[in-house]
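Tokens for Four helix bundle protein. Go.
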Amino acid sequence: MKQNDLLARTFMFGVNCLKFLRTLPNDPESKLIRFQLGKSATSIGANYEESQARSSKADFKNKVKIALREARESNFWLRILKNLDGYNSEEFQVLLNESAELKNILATIVNNTKL
């Protein structure tokens, strides 16, 4: 996979999560999840984007580590939604799968980046 592909994937994951979050009900739990997932899902792409303008390998690795933490958090909130409200639509499943894939890809980049 080319790095530009990952830039596009992380960007679209953030956009697609925000679109999905618009469909949540307005109860207190959903408001909390909307806020937390909205922040973490968009932060993945923002941090990965920032990693591309690195000043050093250490800076690059640090930014990718932050993106990885945000991907893990996004996956967490999506799993909460699945277990709390039984979300299982195709659209939701795509988000859940993409969050897991992004997590694995970013972890591989972190592990393979030698300082």
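The domain at 3-112 is CATH 1.20.1440.60 (de novo design (two linked rop proteins)).
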